[in-house]
Amino acid sequence: MKNSEYEKISDEELLGKIVSEKSAKELLEKHKTLEALLLKSYRQELEQVKGVGSKTSSRIKAVGEAVSRVMYQKSKKVEYVKSAEDAYELCKDMVHLDQEEVRVILLNTKNRVKSVETVTIGTISSSVVTPREVYSRAVRAMAKAIILVHNHPSGEPDPSFDDKEITSQMKEAGQALNIEFLDHIVVAKDGYASLKRETNSDLRKSTERR
C-alpha cells in the first residue's frame, strides 16, 4: 500500500516539485507523458523549454535514471521462469525502449535463469534474427531451455506474421539441438503476448471448426 503525500496529485503537479509550474506544464505538453519525459527525453530537448537550464535538466535525467534502475532491479528478482508472466516480469524494462530489441532467456533443467542476453537491436524479422544467433548463446551457456523475448515500441503486444515465423523456426532448431524452446514473448506497454498461448489458441479454434 502506498504511503506518500504525493500519491494523489497530478503528474504536472508532481513535476512542479522539480521545476516551475509553468515549465512543468510546457514539458508535459511537449513529451505527452511523465514516463516519456523522464525515460526518453534528451537534456538538449529539456533545455529548450524556458526556465529549464543545465542544472534542472540534469536533475530531471537523474530522476529518470533512478526510476529506470528501480524497474530493472525489480525485474532481476525473477530467479525461475515457469510461466509467460514470469518471462514478462523479467524483461519488463523493455516496454520503455524506443526500438525493437530481441533477448533470450537461458534456463537450466529446473527453469532457473542462467542469464538474459541481448541478441539484436533493431527491427525484428525472420531474416534478421536467426536460430544460429540465438542458440549459439544457449550452447555456450549449456542451457537446457530458452525463451525468446522482444518488444513492440508501438505499445501493442499482438504478434505479427514475422513473430510467428520466427517462433516456428526457433522451435524447429531447438528440437534439432535438444534444447527446449519454451515460448516467445512479446512485451509492450499494453501488456504482453505469449506465442505459445496464441498457437494453442489457434489450434483449439481449428479443432472446433472441424
Give a quick set of tags describing it.
210 residues, alpha+beta, Cytidine Deaminase, domain 2, 2 domains, 5-stranded mixed sheet, disordered C terminus
Task: Describe this structure as you would to a colleague.
By secondary structure, the protein is of the alpha+beta class. It has helices at residues 11-15, 21-31, 34-40, 43-46, 54-76, 84-90, 131-140, 161-177, 195-209; strands at residues 101-107, 113-121, 145-151, 180-188, 191-194. It has two domains: 11-74; 78-209, Cytidine Deaminase, domain 2, CATH 3.40.140.10. A five-stranded mixed beta sheet has the order 2-1-3-4-5, sandwiched between helices. A hairpin with a 2-residue loop joins β4 and β5 (191-194). 28% of the residues are buried. Residues 201-210 have low confidence and may be disordered.
CATH class group of the largest domain: Alpha Beta
What is the β-strand count?
5
Question: What is the averaged pLDDT score?
Answer: 85
**Between the first and last Cα atoms, what is the distance in angstroms?**
50 Å
CATH homologous superfamily grouping of the largest domain: Cytidine Deaminase, domain 2
Number of domains: 2
Radius of gyration: 21 Å
Q: How much helix is in the residues?
A: 40-55%
Give the overall silhouette: elongated
